[in-house]
Amino acid sequence: MQNNFPAPWNLTGRGLIVLFKGNQMATLGDSCVPRHVKGNLKSPLRVLMLVDYASSDAGPYQELLFMPGSIELLGKRRFTISNIFVSSMASVINGRANWGIPKNLADFEWETRPDGSQRVCVRSEGHPVFEMDWQGLGFRFPVSTRIAPKPFKTLVQQWEGQCFTYSPSAAGRARYARVGEIKSRSGLFPALERAEVLTAFEIADFQMTFPIPDIEAL
Question: Are 74 and 147 in contact (CB under 8 A)?
């Protein structure tokens, strides 16, 4: 079985993006956020993403990630992924190797209810990591990263003495979503139960590209 899937990747799927009001003190006090991220973190905005990839270069998988804000590396300030779980070991191995993304393995239960609401439960080695439910609202509208300013769509990762910089591109259809109960498990995923939700978007039928990154030594 092939385990090496180099960049770039082309992916399709659906997902949810939740934007939280930045809380510098809460983020710095959260033991789940890595120390190297806390060192120069600014958090005007915190971002949670749940993604169900129907296809990718490494096969289908599901993903939960958290971006606590932006950090400065090599003189540039960019958003970074601090915590991430995926349902595929191929995604873990290649996400780390290709983009320095600190992926870990977990099991996902993704439920769509008769009323259209959805719920996700993520477990790592049998232990609950994260639970959330939400409801998509209203009509869908086209979205694309092409209209986003470069600083907001360029990510940076610090991994094993290297700096990975990359700008994913994506397009799909979105609609607003109402977020319900959130349960983050202390010690496994950043605490978001009391975080203030600014807005949320349910994304459908998206196409995404993760490009070859720029890699520099730290």
Answer: no
Structure token digits, residue 39: 């060192």
Q: Give pLDDT tens digits for 182-215.
A: 999 878 999 999 899 999 999 999 999 999 999 9
* pTM > 0.85: yes or no: yes
Question: Given its phi and psi angles, is residue 22 left (phi above 0), alpha (psi -120 to 50 degrees) or beta?
Answer: beta
| Number of C-beta neighbours around residue 198 at 10 A | 12
Cβ 185 vs Cβ 129: under 8 Å: yes
pLDDT at 190: 95
Q: What angle do CA 162, 64, 119 make, to 5 degrees?
A: 175
Mind listing the pLDDT tens digit for each residue in 87-109?
A: 999 999 999 999 999 999 999 99
From 115, 119, 112, 137, select the one nearest 202 (Cα to Cα).
Answer: 137
Task: Supply angle C-alpha 48, 81, 11, rounded to 5.
Answer: 75
